[in-house]
Amino acid sequence: MTIRSAEHATFAIVRNYPVPPERVFAAWATREAKSRWFGSPVESAYSLDFRVGGHETNRGGPPDGPVYTYAATYSEIVPDERIVYSYTMDAGDTRISVSVTTVEFAADGGGTKLTFTEQGVFLDGGDKVEFREGGTGDLLDALGTALS
Fold first, then answer.
1. pTM of the model
2. Cα angle for residues 123, 53, 125 (degrees, 5° grid)
3. How many domains is the chain partitioned into structurally?
4. Rounded CA gap, 62 and 93, in Å?
5. SS3 143
6. Is residue 18 part of a domain?
7. What range defines the domain where residue 141 resides?
């Protein structure tokens, strides 16, 4: 018997990058730019259709572990200011979370203040908010490296 659970959580991460908002926003907007910090090392496992109603998918995982599938749909895009999307995360054939994410870009001196806010439901113990927040922080650090 499977024990079902749904843990609801929200987290926000703020990063400052020493480049203007249009450059940080552009790092999210094309497959080439986003794959430098977010995409799968297997080219066929990553796709990006960056437009309202468009989809993004990313599949991968450790050689001896499950394949994780990230599948997003873009709900709002305001160039250089805001991206809103929802996404699911699966481990193998099991759905482990569903989230809504807002990424905000604000000019901050000569750079950009990025605020990443995720509201998620983590299902049946397959994922935890602290794991997601840590992984997202790592991705945003990789974005900083890609921008420098």
1. 0.91
2. 5
3. 1
4. 16
5. helix
6. yes
7. 6-147
Check residue 40 and give its pLDDT.
Answer: 59
Question: What is the rounded CA–CA span in Å between residue 92 and residue 6?
Answer: 19
What's the pLDDT at 21?
98
pLDDT at 61: 82
The answer to the question of residue 74 being in a domain is yes
CATH number at residue 15: 3.30.530.20
Q: Is residue 1 part of a domain?
A: no
| Distance between CA atoms of residues 59 and 45, nearest Å | 5
According to the model, what pLDDT value does residue 41 have? 57
In a domain, 13, yes or no: yes
Task: Of 71, 73, 69, give the one whose Cα is nearest residue 93.
Answer: 69
* Encoded tokens for 11: 């987290």
Q: Residue 1: what pLDDT?
A: 58
Residues of the chain with pLDDT under 50: none
